[in-house]
Amino acid sequence: MRKVLVLAVMVVAIAGLQRNALASDWNMPVGVTEISRSVYSLHMLIFWICVVIGVVVFGAMFYSLFRYRRSKGAKAAHFHEHTTVEVFWTTIPLLILVAMAVPATATLKEMYDTSESDLDVLITGHQWRWQYEYLGEGVSFFSNLSTPSAQIEGEAPKDEHYLLEVDQPLVLPVDRKVRFLTTSADVIHSWWVPAFAVKKDAMPGFINEAWTRIEEPGIYRGQCAELCGRNHGFMPVVVHAMEQDDFDAWLAERKQQAASAANSVDREWKMDELMAQGEKVYSTICAACHQAEGQGLPPTFPALAGNQALMDDLEKHIGVVLNGVSETAMPAFSGTLNPVDIAAVITYERNAWGNETGDVIQPSDIQARLSSE
Amino acid sequence: MWQVIKSVLAAFFGVQKDSRRRSDFEHGKPIVFIATGVVMALIMVGLVVSVAMMAAG
Ligand SMILES: [Cu+2]
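Above: query sequence and copper (II) ion SMILES. Below: predicted holo C-alpha cells.
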C-alpha cells in the first residue's frame, strides 16, 4: 500500500514538472529560427537527462537510507576501494557528457557560421540605446525606449510591452540570412533576442558576429543582457520582421528620409521648429541625467534650467554638447546626434524652463563647426 | 615503462587500484612519472586539437 502511494506521488510530481517545463511562460521560448529550435531541443534534451540522473541518484540514495536503516539492524560495510564500481561511475558520466557535447557542438558550429549573409547590420550599443546601421545602404538610426516616464514613475498603469518598446524598431526581412556585427561606443552591452536565440556581447573596440534567419514575420522583443550602467534596463531591443517586398519598400523610404535630412541641414530653421525637435531630443537622450525639467540632480548632474553661467556662455554650451566633458558622465554628442538634433537641443535648453536667451542655433552652423574640427 | 604508462593513464582517468599505487610508490622514481605525465598530456592536447580540427572540417 505504502509503495503504491510513494509511486503515485512520484508520478504526479513528474507530470507536474513536465507541464511546467513545456508551458512557455516558464521555459525558454522555442523561437522562430532553425537555430532557436535546435537550442530549445538541446535545452530540453539536457534537461531530461538531468532529471533522469537526479531521479536515479536520489532515488537510490533515499531507497538505501530507508531500506538499510539502523533501526532495522543494518550494518555498514567497511571497504576501501572497489575498482570496478569506480570505473563504472566514472565511465557513465563521461559517456553522458560526450553524448551531450556532440549535438551541442554541431549547433554551436552553425551559430558561428556567419558566412554568405544576404544583409549586414552593424549594431552599436550606447548608454542607453541601440544604434542600427544597414551596411552599404546608408541607413542608420537610433532605437530609443518609448515607454512614457509616467509609467516608469508609477503614475500611470503599465502597458503590455512596458520597457520592451522603442520609437524605431530594427526592421529585417524574413527568410534571409542577416548578419549582425555588434560593437559598442562606451561600455560592454549585449544584444539579445530570445526568439532568435541570438545573444552577442557588444564591446568597445571589438566587432562580434552573429546571424539569424527569421522564418515568421512579426515583432520580436529582447533586452540588453550585459549590465551597462544606470539605464541598463531601459534599452530594449525590438525587431520588426517583414516580407522581403515590405522590407525593400521600408528601406527605400528610409533612404529617402536620410537624403532629405541632409538637405534640411542647409536651410534656415525657425525657433519653433527647433524647439519642437529639441524637446524630443532632450526627453529621449538628455533627460536621463539632466531630468525632465532641466533641474538636474546636483551635484552629479548639473541643472540646466536657471543655469545663468551657462546661459551667458553660448560657446561653452555648444562645446560641451559636441565634445562632452572628459572624466565625467557627460558624453560627446558630435558623433551620435546629427547637426539638426544638436542645434535643436541647444536651442531648446537655452529657451525652455524659464531660460530666455532667445538664441536660435542653426544646424548649418553646427555642421560647419563639425567639419572644421 | 608499460607499467608507468598504465599508471599515468589511470591517473588521467581518475581511478587506480590500491595495489598498483603501492607498488608504484615502492619501485618507481617520481621524475619518471612526472615526465611521462607531461609527455602524455601534450599528446592528449594534440589529440583533442586534431579531433576539433576534424569536426570543424
Ligand atoms: Cu546595455
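Chain B touches chain A through seven residues (CB under 8 Å).
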